[in-house]
Amino acid sequence: MQISNNTVVSFHYTVLNEAGEEVETSRGEDPSLCLIGANNTLAGVEQAMIGKQAGDSFKVSLEPHLAYGLYSEKNKDRISAKYLKHEGKLKVGKVVRLNTNQGYKTGTILKVGKFNVDIDLNHPLAGQAVSFDIEIMAVRDGTAEEIAHGHAHGIGGHNH
């Protein structure tokens, strides 16, 4: 079966930064699941998957504006430390997840005060070209429920 809209793809990936250093991988864990056409992953990665099938391996390189965005000095904020208590001990350079009005965002701590934290809300890979090394493990049709929900269900996807 070829990957197309409304198919669920099970895949492993490795992300490399501009310097060619591995920054994230799913290998050694359960594969990731993605419902194609539902914006569950970067558009460039999804487009590169179209037409592939189980067993295919490929690489895709994305410029910053197609990956994690351009870096913006304006994307910094000072927030109450209480919003990050779920992250444990806070220290400069720690990457944290923050629940915002626009959903979860990843940020890097710039400064820790007694009550407030200065945070850079640019993705840690913002402004960098990145490469993905992808291996397609399985492809199946998305269920009606997955298509209605806009994401894949199961291990590596979204569990209800």
From TrEMBL:
SUPFAM superfamilies: FKBP-like. The keyword Cytoplasm applies. GO terms for cellular component: cytoplasm. Keywords: Chaperone, Cytoplasm, Isomerase, Rotamase. It is found in: Cytoplasm. It catalyses: [protein]-peptidylproline (omega=180) = [protein]-peptidylproline (omega=0). GO terms for molecular function: peptidyl-prolyl cis-trans isomerase activity. Residues 6-69 form the PPIase FKBP-type domain. It holds the Pfam family FKBP_C. Its EC number is 5.2.1.8. GO terms for biological process: protein refolding. Also involved in hydrogenase metallocenter assembly, probably by participating in the nickel insertion step. This function in hydrogenase biosynthesis requires chaperone activity and the presence of the metal-binding domain, but not PPIase activity. Belongs to the FKBP-type PPIase family. This is Peptidyl-prolyl cis-trans isomerase. It comes from Oceanicoccus sagamiensis.
